[in-house]
Every structure is written in structure tokens, then in C-alpha cells.
Amino acid sequence: MSTRESKKAAGGRRAEYAAATRQAIHEAARELFTGKGYFATTVDDIATAARVAPATVYAVGGGKQGLLKAIIETRTTAPDVEETYGHIAGTTDADELLRFITHATRVRFEDSRGLMRVVIDTAPHDAAAAQALRTAHASLRDGLARTARRLAELGALRNGIDVQEATDTLWFYLGNGAYFTLTDDNDWPLDKVEQWLHTSLRTALLRSGSADRSASDQ
Q1: Which of 37, 57, 70, 76 is the S-S candidate for 139 at Cβ 3.0 to 4.6 Å?
Q2: How far lies 55's CA from each of 44, 58, 66, 133, in Å?
Q3: pLDDT reported for residue 51
Q4: Bridge-partner residues for 28, per DSSP?
């Protein structure tokens, strides 16, 4: 192996190690934030759980504040986000689009509900958590706005409902607040939540022809 190839291989190993270290720190921080709470978790706790030195937590994640922001940003830029956008743009049936985006938000909530509860509860008291919450909400609202625009392109929105109102309606039903209310306050299982949200959105947004057609298909 040439010197150049050796350096390239070493660089690749360093990059893999750095990525594995970052992932371990993120996973440890997420588990601790969810289990102990943001304020009760220390950098030393994260370092111990990730099996790294505290200095590494600061170097890789910027401490607790940087980690919370990074964890949210990593989720909002994951490959499946672009896949979701592609599916929204390519769907030609309005009710199928509502069904898809409802299921996508259900999966997102199911995966992140513990962390999002921590972020929401912490945001009024911590600037980093507030920024993380804004990032999460902006990502979700972007997907809902794309859905609203696609429904408008398909000519499926009820008379008098424009893209902005459709986006606001989708946010009302599919934001974290709705999911927490239905699961925590009402104690509904997520399967019931998903079905109810889809049915409610179909009634609220779709022209009667689209809603009637989709209902007959069930």
C-alpha cells in the first residue's frame, strides 16, 4: 500500500471513529434527557453513558445546549425527510396524501415523543431548548405546507380554503400538541389517534367529492 493510500485509509478510519463517537454521544444524551430530564442531566452523565471523556462531549457536541440542538437538527435532516417530501410531490390522490402525511406524523411522534416532551417543557426556561423546538416545528410545518400546496395543485381543497389555511389546519391536527392531547390527556392508542386524525382532516379539507369517494373505498 502506498503512503497516499495509507493516509487515505487512516483518514477514513478517523472519520468512522468520529461518526461513531458522535452517534454514541447523541444516543446517550437523548436517553438521559428523556429519562432524567434536561436540567438534571450533566455532561459527566452523558460522558459516562457514551464511554467518552467529558471534554469529548464538549468538543463533539458543544455541551448539553449544543447536543439538544444537534439531536433535533439531525432528525430534521435525516434521509427519510427528503423521501417524505418526494412522496408528497408525487402523490396524485388527495385522500391518499392525507392518509400518508397523517401516518408520517404519527411515526415521527412515536419515535420522538419522549424527547419532544422534554424540549417543550424546557423551552420556556432555556434558550437552547427554545431554539431546538423552533427547529423541530419549522421542519414539521414545512412538510405540512408542502402537503397543503399539493392538495391545492390537485384541486382537492374545499371552497374558500387556500394553502395557508390548509397548512394551519394540518398544523392544528398533526402538530405535537394534538398528539399529546389525544394520547396523554385522552389516553387514546396511536392507532385510534391516526384514524381519527385522518378522518377529521378529510372532512375539514377535502371537497365533498374527494371525501365521499375516499369514504366509499374504506
Answers
A1: 76
A2: 9, 5, 14, 26
A3: 93
A4: none
Asked if residue 214 lies in contact with residue 178, where contact means CB atoms within 8 angstroms, the answer is no
How confident is the model at residue 193, as a pLDDT?
98
Q: Which residues of the chain are modeled with pLDDT < 50? A: 5, 7-10, 212-218
- Three-state DSSP state, 137: helix
CA neighbor of 147 nearest in space, from 158, 157, 132: 157
pLDDT tens figures, 59-116:
988 888 889 888 888 888 778 888 999 999 999 999 999 999 999 999 999 999 999 9
Q: Which residues pair with 206 in a beta bridge?
A: 157
Would you state the cell numbers that stand for residue 139, as one nine-digit string?
421542519
Rounded Cα gap, residues 136 and 11, in angstroms: 33
pTM of the model: 0.84
Per DSSP, what are the bridge partners of residue 157?
206
* CA 205 to mean position of chain CA atoms: 23
Q: What is the largest CA-CA distance in the chain?
A: 70
C-alpha cell at 200: 377529521
DSSP-assigned letters across all residues of 10-44: HHHHHHHHHHHHHHHHHHHHHHHHHHH-TTT--HH
Q: Is 66 left (phi over 0), alpha (psi -120 to 50) or beta?
A: alpha
pLDDT at position 79, please?
82
pLDDT at position 210 is: 57
Task: Find all residues with CB under 8 Å of 135, minimum gap 6, and list them.
Answer: 69, 72, 73, 76
